[in-house]
Amino acid sequence: MVQDAETYKDEDQAYEKKVTAINSLETSTYGMRNLVDSEECTFSDTDKTLIREKVEETIQWIDNNRSAEVDEIEHKQKELTDLMTSCQQQPENKGPTIDEMD
Length: 102
Prior knowledge:
The chain has a single domain, classed as Substrate Binding Domain Of Dnak, Chain:A, Domain 2 (Up-down Bundle). It is built from 4 helices and no strands. It has helices at about 1-35, 45-65, 70-90, 100. The N and C termini lie far apart (about 40 Å).
């Protein structure tokens, strides 16, 4: 019985980590979309288009990959973060930081 509890505890912790990762990815994705669509966004039209495309791609990926492993989810999160960082580093883009987006 104690052994079963330990087994389920490990499974529960793994599931909790997965749910936390997917929730974080969803929050970041929708936050990026809201940021780009806001009037305060100063990104170039090209960067806005790139971000919107990546956001839509990520939303579809989330919808189709609910059973993805944590490392896959974290990889998608990194792709979004890298894109946003790249856009923010463009001289013509003086928008909010990633921390402000969260």
